[in-house]
Each structure stands twice: as structure tokens, then as C-alpha cells.
Amino acid sequence: MAKRKVIISCAITGSVHTPSMSPYLPYRPEDIARQAIEAAEAGAAILHLHARDPENGRPSADPEVFLRFLPSIRQASDGIINISTGGSSVMSLDDRLAPALRTKPEMCSLNMGSMNFGIYPLMRDGMEWRHEWEPKLLEATRSTIFRNTFADIEDILLRLGRDCGTRFEFECYDVGHLYTLKHFVDRGLVKGPFFIQFVMGILGGIGADADNLIHMKRIADKLFGDDYLFSVLAAGRQQMPLATMGATLGGNVRVGLEDNLFLDRGTLARSNAEQVSRIRSILEGLSLDIATPDEARAMLDLKGKDEVDF
What we know:
Blueprint: E1 5-6, E2 8-11, H1 29-42, E3 46-49, E4 51-52, E5 59-60, H2 63-66, H3 70-76, E6 80-83, H4 93-103, E7 107-111, E8 115-116, H5 133-140, E9 145-146, H6 150-164, E10 167-172, H7 175-186, E11 194-200, H8 210-224, E12 228-234, H9 239-248, E13 252-255, E14 262-264, E15 267-268, H10 272-285, E16 289-290, H11 293-300
Parallel strand pairs: 1-16, 2-3, 2-13, 3-6, 6-7, 7-10, 10-11, 11-12, 12-13
Antiparallel strand pairs: 4-5, 8-9, 14-15
Protein name: 3-keto-5-aminohexanoate cleavage protein
Keywords: Metal-binding, Transferase, Zinc
Cofactor: Zn(2+)
């Protein structure tokens, strides 16, 4: 029997953390490219990418900003480029989709529902902000909803999946999102093998603890049988413990500065590659093999790096 391979995803910058929280969070195109390439060299098969304004680090959905780093990553790495369709909760759906529709990547993330997405607790009393936009964006999540209606999800599946050949990282922030995914599977809009990311620890979604991870997997097994792969993303300090647990349950893992700024308690990660190296060391210590990008492409039935538009 072939030995199981574990896919490491790395979320390089995201739209949750801000430059004032860590000097190591990349936001300039050249820094995003460099950290993505280093993460791939450290063992990440999938590179989950957002863009930011190069001047101040504010989350950006401008396709031209993405095109300032995507070609460099593609040329220097075999990593699977996975572009967010989430952007941030203050962006419109058209804005969020613009980069992926322009570049037609192998993969995109797809949040499986509308939800409260509260990152305002990241604000701390006495925090010194480098940019005026940072506390304003965080505070806005107290009163806004991240929108992905059934119509929005269908639109994304058709415009990106059917029309561009892009496959998805289905981000499920709670058990109900698994049932939403099953709805689209039953309608024939999603075909296996599909890749489910259990997203845990976001305020508004399921909590990051062992019981919830087991429950998410149990429901996914009931709904999808053997026709899916899962990965575990735990925000904050539960990143490494729950990723490790997910791997022991037969899953894959996601790390990166989008999800957690730290390497150890009180120690900021100096790069995404540090987190990739840490989880790789843990996995190899458990006698698990790490999937190469091409092995991950085969596992997820992706179209290949030469079928993109960048």
C-alpha cells in the first residue's frame, strides 16, 4: 500500500493581521513573493495568497497588485498558487473575484457561507498603530458580515470552476458549511475529489479545540465518504496543536502568518517558512511523508501550473 502523503498549505499574508502586529508580516509584492518561495522551499505544496497595498499594507483586491508577485512565484517555485476569493469582509463580491478571474489559478479558496467574522478583538489597549486604516478595518468587523450567499457561491463555482478550470479549497468555518457544500455536491456543481479546509478559531465560527475537530471530521465523513480530503487551519495559538491532530486523523495541514503570527509562545515567527519548517518537522517525526506540489496536484486533480493566466 502506498504511503499517505500530507499536503502542507501556507497562507502567506491574509487580510486579518496588520503591519503593526508584526514586522515580519509581508505586504510589499517583493516580500510576499520572497516569503512564498521560501515557504515552498521549506515544504509547502500550496501557497494561499492575498494581496495588500504596497504602500501601507491594507488588504487589496487589485489584480495588478497580484500580478506584481504571482509571476515571480510561478517562475521560482512549483508550488500550487491558491488565490483567495475571500479578500476581506469590507470588499464586494466583484472586487473579491477580480484577481482570480484575471489570473485563472489552479486553486482558489471558497468560504462556504455568510458569517460574522470578528477580528476586532485583535485590537489591544495601548497598541501603537503604524497606519490609520488598521484599527478602522478591525473595528468594522464588529458590525459587518462576511457575505457569501448561496447565489454568490454558485456564481463562484460557475465562473471560476466551470469556466476557468479552477478547483477549490472549500473553507468550512462551522458544521453548517459542510451541509452547504453537500448541497452543491448534490446539485452537481462540485465534483470530487474535493479539498475541505476546517477553519477553526475565528470569532463567529467553530472554536479551535479537539472535540470540534473530531466533530467536523465525523460530519464530513458522513456527508462525503471517501470522496474528499481535509485540512486543518486553527487560528492563533492552536495552529500547531490542531494541525498535528488533524494529520494524525488522516488529514492535511495549513500554517502561515495569515492564521498565526507566532512560532512559540511570545516569539513572533520571522517568516512563513519558519512555520512550514516547524510543522514539517512535527509531521516527519510522526513518520508522515510530505506531499510535493506535483503529488498534491495529482491528489486534488488540478489542471497544472501551465494552465494559468499569469
